[in-house]
Each structure stands twice: as C-alpha cells, then as structure tokens.
Amino acid sequence: MLKVGLTGGIGSGKSLIAELFTHLGIPVYSADLRAKEIMTEDDEVRKELITIFGEKIYVGGILDRKKLAKIVFNDPDQLQLLNKVVHPAVRKDYNEWHDRQNAAYTIREAAILFESGAYADCNKIITVNAEEALRLRRVIKRDKSEEEEVVLRMKNQWSDEQRAEKSNFVISNNEQDMILPQVLEIHDILLKMNKNK
Hints:
Strand order of the largest sheet: 2-5-1-6-7
Shape: globular
CATH topology of the domain at 2-32 and 90-192: Rossmann fold
Helix content: 40-55%
CATH class of the domain at 2-32 and 90-192: Alpha Beta
CATH architecture of the domain at 2-32 and 90-192: 3-Layer(aba) Sandwich
Radius of gyration: 17 Å
Number of strands: 7
Distance between the termini: 9 Å
Number of helices: 9
Order of helices and strands: EHEHHEEHHEEHHHEH
C-alpha cells in the first residue's frame, strides 16, 4: 500500500483536495488535526510541552493553540522545540493508522510535510499550489486572523516553488483552474502504480 503525502502552504486548499480523495475511497490522515489531538490527549506529549512552555499553554486541560502559536511563530528556536516533541508522536500515530487501512494507497495530509521531514516516509508527494495573495485572503476569512499573523505563519513554511520542486504531482488551486480533473488524473496514476508494485 503506497504512502502518499499531500501538502501545500496555509490556505492552498489541501483540505478540499483531501476531501476529494476521500470521496474516491482513499483513506486520508490529517497530520495537522491529529497533532492538535495528540498535544491534548497524549500524556507523554503533554508533559513534555508543559516542561518546555509551562502550564499556561493549557486551559482547562485543553491546549490553547493561539497562546502556543504566539510563542512559537515569533521564535524559531521555540518552534524547533515544539516540533521535536510533536513530529515523532505524529509519525508513530500515522504509521499505526496506515497499517490498519485497506486501500491502494493512503494520503497523509500535512502543511509542513517537507519542513518536518515526514516527506521521507512517502512513496509519492502531491503539492497544492495557490497564489500567495489568494491564500492570504482565504486564511483571513477562514480563521478570522490578522494579516500579520498569517504572513508570519507563511514565512515559517516552504514556498510553493520549493515544494513543487520536490513533489511528484502539483495541483493548481487558483480560482481559474478546475481541480477535479487534476485529482482524478493523479488518482488513476497512483492506482496503476499500486497494481504494478
């Protein structure tokens, strides 16, 4: 069973693309969503995060993501400390999940697939690209975020060009491109690849 990575910058529309693959019967693992759950539910991870960032990042036992984001997105060293705790836990969780699936391939959706090193575990990688101005508008509208917050998060991610260079497939999700034909074409290629394995 192939392991396929799906990535793209914040606001690129990864989740929409992931949803389309789900409709095609492909299991999708959302690394970003699971990371949030693991940071709240996994006792070992919680302990490590409290040791590094203090009790203040949990409110009523729930991770205060905005508080944590303020700390880590303004300080690359703090972000690195967070990643050292969370990425191995997510990698382990994904591998266990993947082994339970029954499909031609699974998709691991992750915003920072390259930055985290998780791309190394993937057989193939799909990147979703969208113009930066469009991505910015989408995120501000979706998250009710301030522009400078979103720009800061974008700066901590690879550029579309960097991701595309290391990917096997690139889906263009600008407002003028049809995305379903792009997804179907990739799906067909991956099904054939799995058969020929």
